[in-house]
């Protein structure tokens, strides 16, 4: 692969915060950026040189976009396969469409993982209510029913506690094709954000630990509170997945860590990940620089972590009683603020994040939570 050098144009499908942070890195390194999505005035568009506003199904617009850029990557994996295939006729697309195709459907993803010997929770393919009832009898309860396509942040999933729940649960997911998955009684969730170049070079940020609230990532921190053995095993599994899929770019592997120390892969994201945002302030190079370097065929950078760090998401809910008190959150000099330029603060919408670094992971977590509380706290309480 010939390197795509600075001053070339990087095309990004999707226009949210992940594209924005990629665009910031690309701009810093002297690249031009063009984003493509059905919206305008977007978080990525505000940073990019050009913002194309068209439907992913508008293949003429996709062709025009792909002709205008030197490489195409994604910040949003749920673009239709045909869109990636069309773009690939005119520009290199990384990660390749097949990776996207697998990662955008839970059934394909889990089938890929299981058939290649990666650890996943037991699951069954569900097409009908009868399939579901049989699967619940086989797998046992509790179990989680998830739509096969287009799910994230706990959307499109429901917990089943008894065979009698099946009809209602299937109705809740609108009788769509689904996966029934055994419930994992996990101790914690960790993720590995990893990058792979076209020549097979590999880099990773180690295990990052994640805490969720209402199915949405709340706080991530690194180094994770896991043993050296677990850390190594998580990276080994992630590496195996990126190699098997021949990923060029960044891929994030989300794991459950069970109480008896076993790692189970929950999900793959063929891109940088919310849990990797702390790499911006805590590492020599961050996940977006790695994505840029990997898709442009440049050597991957060092991922060295300078200091333990923690990241807390800022959801739209924080705006409920007016503008958050930014200055108060930043009274701690080790806290950094990232806002994504979204115009409307809706409940549950990711508007930005805070990162704290400290001497220890625990102190970083405490600092970032305190800083977030300060955004809405009354000074006198
Ligand atoms: P997902 O959308 O698949 O990433 O799931 C969102 C969240 O639901 C996860 O972060 C877990 O907290 C929970 N979850 C998903 N699948 C399972 C499972 N098989 N067992 C237990 N909890 C689960």
TrEMBL record:
<dbReference type="Pfam" id="PF22660">
    <property type="entry name" value="RS_preATP-grasp-like"/>
</dbReference>
<dbReference type="GO" id="GO:0034028">
    <property type="term" value="F:5-(carboxyamino)imidazole ribonucleotide synthase activity"/>
</dbReference>
<dbReference type="InterPro" id="IPR040686">
    <property type="entry name" value="PurK_C"/>
</dbReference>
<dbReference type="InterPro" id="IPR016185">
    <property type="entry name" value="PreATP-grasp_dom_sf"/>
</dbReference>
<feature type="binding site">
    <location>
        <position position="189"/>
    </location>
    <ligand>
        <name>ATP</name>
    </ligand>
</feature>
<dbReference type="InterPro" id="IPR029752">
    <property type="entry name" value="D-isomer_DH_CS1"/>
</dbReference>
<feature type="binding site">
    <location>
        <begin position="181"/>
        <end position="184"/>
    </location>
    <ligand>
        <name>ATP</name>
    </ligand>
</feature>
<dbReference type="InterPro" id="IPR054350">
    <property type="entry name" value="PurT/PurK_preATP-grasp"/>
</dbReference>
<comment type="pathway">
    <text>Purine metabolism; IMP biosynthesis via de novo pathway; 5-amino-1-(5-phospho-D-ribosyl)imidazole-4-carboxylate from 5-amino-1-(5-phospho-D-ribosyl)imidazole (N5-CAIR route): step 1/2.</text>
</comment>
<feature type="domain" description="ATP-grasp">
    <location>
        <begin position="110"/>
        <end position="296"/>
    </location>
</feature>
<feature type="binding site">
    <location>
        <position position="106"/>
    </location>
    <ligand>
        <name>ATP</name>
    </ligand>
</feature>
<keyword id="KW-0067">ATP-binding</keyword>
<comment type="function">
    <text>Catalyzes the ATP-dependent conversion of 5-aminoimidazole ribonucleotide (AIR) and HCO(3)- to N5-carboxyaminoimidazole ribonucleotide (N5-CAIR).</text>
</comment>
<dbReference type="InterPro" id="IPR011761">
    <property type="entry name" value="ATP-grasp"/>
</dbReference>
<feature type="binding site">
    <location>
        <begin position="266"/>
        <end position="267"/>
    </location>
    <ligand>
        <name>ATP</name>
    </ligand>
</feature>
<dbReference type="GO" id="GO:0004638">
    <property type="term" value="F:phosphoribosylaminoimidazole carboxylase activity"/>
</dbReference>
<dbReference type="GO" id="GO:0005524">
    <property type="term" value="F:ATP binding"/>
</dbReference>
<dbReference type="Pfam" id="PF02222">
    <property type="entry name" value="ATP-grasp"/>
</dbReference>
<dbReference type="InterPro" id="IPR003135">
    <property type="entry name" value="ATP-grasp_carboxylate-amine"/>
</dbReference>
<feature type="binding site">
    <location>
        <position position="146"/>
    </location>
    <ligand>
        <name>ATP</name>
    </ligand>
</feature>
<dbReference type="InterPro" id="IPR011054">
    <property type="entry name" value="Rudment_hybrid_motif"/>
</dbReference>
<protein>
    <recommendedName>
        <fullName>N5-carboxyaminoimidazole ribonucleotide synthase</fullName>
        <ecNumber>6.3.4.18</ecNumber>
    </recommendedName>
</protein>
<feature type="binding site">
    <location>
        <begin position="151"/>
        <end position="157"/>
    </location>
    <ligand>
        <name>ATP</name>
    </ligand>
</feature>
<keyword id="KW-0658">Purine biosynthesis</keyword>
<dbReference type="InterPro" id="IPR013815">
    <property type="entry name" value="ATP_grasp_subdomain_1"/>
</dbReference>
<comment type="subunit">
    <text>Homodimer.</text>
</comment>
<dbReference type="GO" id="GO:0005829">
    <property type="term" value="C:cytosol"/>
</dbReference>
<keyword id="KW-0436">Ligase</keyword>
<dbReference type="GO" id="GO:0006189">
    <property type="term" value="P:'de novo' IMP biosynthetic process"/>
</dbReference>
<dbReference type="InterPro" id="IPR005875">
    <property type="entry name" value="PurK"/>
</dbReference>
<feature type="binding site">
    <location>
        <position position="212"/>
    </location>
    <ligand>
        <name>ATP</name>
    </ligand>
</feature>
<comment type="function">
    <text>Catalyzes the ATP-dependent conversion of 5-aminoimidazole ribonucleotide (AIR) and HCO(3)(-) to N5-carboxyaminoimidazole ribonucleotide (N5-CAIR).</text>
</comment>
<keyword id="KW-0547">Nucleotide-binding</keyword>
<dbReference type="GO" id="GO:0046872">
    <property type="term" value="F:metal ion binding"/>
</dbReference>
<comment type="similarity">
    <text>Belongs to the PurK/PurT family.</text>
</comment>
<dbReference type="Pfam" id="PF17769">
    <property type="entry name" value="PurK_C"/>
</dbReference>
